Amino acid sequence: MPKAQQGSPRKAKKPPVGKQTSRAATSHQGDQIPVEVPTQRRTTGAARRRTGYVRLRVRMDDGEMSIVDTHHVDSELSLPTKLQGANAYDVTLGDRLLHADSIPDVGVSRSFPNPDPNAPPEQHGHHFHELSMYEFDVRVPVGDLAKADLPKVAITYYRVKEHTGDAPLAARPLAQQYDKEMREVSRIVGLPDSIL
Asked: Any residues with CB less than 8 A from the CB of 100 and at least 6 apart, and which?
């Protein structure tokens, strides 16, 4: 059996057809064989949107709710331990709670007292004014939602009449958990296909 010749240059292997390698990985000097490093492929839009959640910008205008913007967030979404504040929402699919959360300090304009002691009397004290139009965010997990579910998904906006207690939220719509503490203000049924 003949011996291999020493000092003979080695030929670089070509990457297999269809395999992508990064340009930096194929550069080499002298007799070194380049190391093939597969480049990361971008996930398609459909695959990317199957995880995480969608943040919906919801507008209240004279008691009517509408969705004005959607934004996908590639992160986990967890249910809060309890509700706080005077407003809340839930996102439901039938009797299944998809998400719920508090809506802190929304729908009210506040003015603060004028610190000048010589200011007119009407400028002393706090003043509250309810707004006819305002916006807030609603979060919807989309990992296990199918396109056929979207027309049945409901977003309900509530005023919290009484403290809901310190018990953790259960996986049921808020109206079922807090029937005495919540008053429904408005509801939207059906989400746009764009969230998937």
From this structure: 79, 80, 83, 88, 89, 90, 91, 169, 173, 174
Burial per residue of 5-27, b for 16 or more beta-carbon CB atoms within 10 angstroms, e otherwise: eeeeeeeeeeeeeeeeeeeeeee
Question: Which residue is it, tokens 């409901």?
Answer: 154
Q: pLDDT tens digit string along 146-171?
A: 999 999 999 999 999 888 888 888 88
Which alpha helices (DSSP H) does 11-162 contain, by range? 23-26, 45-48
pTM, 2 dp? 0.66
pLDDT higher than threshold 60 for residue 32: no
- As given in the structure block, the two tokens for residue 58 are 């919801």
The rounded distance, in Å, linking the Cα atoms of 196 and 187 is: 21
